[in-house]
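Fold this complex.
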Amino acid sequence: MQEQELTTIRIFRFDPSVDREPRYETYRVPYVGYTVLGSLEYVYKYHDSSLAYRTGCLGKGSGRCGACPVTVNGIPALSCQRMAEPNMTVDPHPKFEIIKDLVVDLESPRQEPLKPPVTIKITIDRSKCVGCRDCFYICQARVYELQKVDGKTLPVPADVASCCGLTCKMCSTHCSHDAIKVQLLE
Amino acid sequence: MKKYKQEETDVLIIGAAIAGIRAAIEAHDQGARVTILNKGSFGRDGASTWMAAYGYSAAMYPPDSLDTHIQDTIRAGKFLNNQDLVATFLAYTPQGAKEMTKWGTRFEKETDGRFKQIIIPGHSYPRSLITRMSALYPGPQYSRALTTQVRRREIAVVKDLFVTDLISRDGHVSGAVGIDYATGEFRVFKAKTTMVATGGFSSCYRLSTNGTSATGDGQAMILRAGGKLMDMEFQQFMPAAGVWPPSIQGSLTPYAMLVSLYGHYLNDQGERFMERYYPRAKDWATRQETARAIANEVRVGMGSPHGGAFLSFKHQPRNLINRYLDVNEDDSVVRKLRASGIDLHQDAFEVAPHAHYSQGGCVINRKCETSLDGLYAIGEVVAGVDGADRLGTNAMAFCFSMGIVGGKEAALKAKSSDFPVIDEEQLDALKQEAFAPLDRRTDVRPMEIKNKVCQLLETHGSFSRNQEGLDQAIREITDIRENQLPSLSAANKAGTYNMEWVEALEVRNSIDIAEMIFRSAEMRKESRGAHERVDFPEEDPNWLKNITVCKNRDQLEMNTTPVIFSYMSPQKGE
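Structure:
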């Protein structure tokens, strides 16, 4: 079995019950052919079993259970879909309360969420949208808000900074009228 | 002054996935106070349902019928199913399809408004509903529909809670205890009726298509509580899920690719070995045959570097591959292969059999009652609906139906029950067990035991089982239980979100699961459905009985019980 190339990963560590403030720890991990989640698992197994991160479906399929949003190099992403690369920094998702390290409570937004740079463009074709709100319910990062649009209450992508972008796309995948496009902002 | 705060509810449901959530809805609508616990957040981690592939089967329209669906299920189960359960629960599947649709699952419809249904091997008619977008992975739609229904009701949802044991005494269950991940607290839940909906044990295997949560916690806690389990030897595998590169591990897409793109399996010599095993069907042999062949190549040392086979499309014309890649460019696995440097025109990637679904589990009756008073069980944790081999796309349908029935029965029973009195000394003992991996200062890490159990299950609890191997597996698992488990200790001693502590508790459960699998497989001296023995390669009609397991003092007690053919008898030559 060939030796795997290793890189350095920097991971946010914070246990609110014992730490006064967060810190970063660095580890050596493989990355070629790995997702970020795979690199985190490597840290847990071989370096530091005190690292906490969420795993759901482990990205095994084209489906997304949405359990694992994190921030990679400043941009939100699902750790199970985001490919690992050299010299990554991994932080918790900026919008939600931190339980420990990379584990957040996806039902509790922070009082003061961090705002990463916007890298995604979400367009809704209103001629196709029927207002079923599937996107609003299915989004794990609460990107959508229900707002009045032309007299109707419709989902609007209000918080695109929190969007996990191309690693997720659950909204556009599951829109049964093909009304949503999620693209990289050029 | 009570030492433990006992959180009270009428119906306590352990496991918030398709079965548990449907039961919570039903029990609530019957007027019961409901609390549902999950080993993860709500609707995302801690469950396998949200990863379900393909659809939901129901006999909706003539010429299809419930009878035909029942017969197909029993035939697929090789006549080991509990026919009463099959008939009872399948009857609810059309209702389930309509409810799921009403709640927001976008099952595809034909132009005349009928559900679109596709045919799946083993079904006599097209029966599987598919979701309109993302037919292969309806999971997020199930999640969105079911969690919304819970949120609209007064149902208490407790997330990130690992249930370590049932509170059971003298044949009666009064609730459950567990660890709150976020705080490390020991929590006690007292209930008039308790329902286990914790799923299967595919994650006990090294390679599984499930997430990390299906570690058989429910089966193990029921065993410890004095309940009865059955059919533990029947574990279903998917023949060729991804193994390497690691980003595609566990993915079912490679098997779909094999079918659409006519791939070949190659061993580490580059040989198309399926030609040797199955000269006619070759790479398109049945799932079982394929899995067996790949496992065998690995066993004789011709497997791919990461313990499987290579899946190759190199023999296909470039434009055929390119067209597939274009059409599927958005697919996660296609993207990951490309990002990992795999060029399908010239590279192969690795696949292997993966544990997928557990037919075995807790014995129940048609009301979802277990052998313990006050305890119900629903969903994949249950045995009897699938028999020796599950009919594809029946899982979601069965789980949902059991949620309807179990939820109603548990609520009705709760109405006529008083709150139990729980002995605090018993809680002391349960707490000690739960905290042992934190408290011990010994040196056996969870990962060590897990690796050993996985290796035993892969070698002796998968394909081509045999007497010698099973005897050895039983010896080794007993040794692990007696000599290693008492020293199991997490190196990470933190109270908050301690994944290693959880892993230790899961490993404790997986030892019981593995032992039940090996003993049941050893006892069944035939091959049937998902259980295959090279020393007894044929089906034996004398084995038309189920193997049951329960705990007697500290030993496993094995028994058999003949199948009752209340609905359909096996024909000669079946």
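The radius of gyration of chain A is 17 Å.
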